[in-house]
Amino acid sequence: MKLKKGKLFNSLSIGIASVWFSAHCGPGFASGTQELFYFVRHGWLGVFMPALSMTLVGIGIWFMLEHCRLNQKYSYRDIYDKATVPADFVLGKIYDIITFLTLMLAPAACLAAGGVLLHQYLGLSDFAGRTVMLVLTVVTVIFGAKVVRVTGTALTVAMIALIVIICGVGIARNWDVIANQISNRVMYTDYSTAFKGGLTYFAFQVGVWTVACSAAVGIRYKQESKGAAIFGIILNSLMLMGVCTLLLGGMPTVATDPNAKLLPTVYIIKLLNLPFFNIAYPILLFLALITTLVGFVLVLQTRLRQVVLKKMENDKLKNTIISGGFLIIVWAISQFGLIAIISKGYTYTGYITVVIWLLPMLVLGINNLIKYRKLEKQGQLPPGMDNRAEAEQAS
Length: 395
Known about the structure:
The protein has one domain (11-381): Sodium/glucose cotransporter. By secondary structure, it is mostly helical. The chain has 19 helices and no strands. It is globular and about 65 Å long.
């Protein structure tokens, strides 16, 4: 039976891709630390590897969006369960635990990045800087969460705009160095290590499907899933490749200098000697780190409120205890440092993802997707999801 496919690009598909990018554009991305470790430090190939990584991530997100669409489920646990039938009872619980643990890495990276930023600009020790970030986040969660949710998008957009401008200026000024490394195929490691870095980046970034699917409420047509994946691949690839190209202009110093590799993007901005950006970007980065932290805390706070302190009636006190306890754990993780969190924590997260997400999807997810698509053709989907042309004509 003929199915209506819908539009490839509409407000929903573009919105899903934008949410994916916002989740991707975290502390590791904005600081340049992720780009440096997984791509640029290997050499010229690092400029092009992001396209491979983001294409694989996009395929993974498309796959999960189809499960989301066909079952009209938007919570990551519900979608994962539908995709892993009949092993969902066991695998779902394991995935829930792993997701909870990995959710601690991004906020820990935020604290660590904030500590480095405050050290470089205010002279605070890393320990003191992380502690300041911790206190500011707790205060913001208690009193200013609504404001952060409203301004968070604006801050992200402003930071992206600055990154685009900085990449344009930096690439233009260092084009001779960049072009020389690309044309001569300069490698600082080897090709196998470079490809491993790109595949590892895919493995831990594909977990962002959970965020993309949460923004897919109302998704109905196959083309919408495809459009979200295509637009997201293009958007994320271009931004990632732009930053990687910018950083390549500072190689190999940016990968060997102890201060440079902590916040590579900030290091390049200082070299460009652009007064406005020297002030504006660090401030925006700091504010973006706070908003990202608050976002993660609110997600975990909402989840944990259903499990702990159920009888406590004072909501503000309950939120303080939950958010404070979570942030103390995150603060402890942040003591390992930004580079260790990104190079080790994210890498191991990628390995775990291969076992607990990729393998089940290859074994169970594909089979279940085929089954759900057969049900779609038969008009046996959840209410309101009958996309058959015949059904619409009959109504």
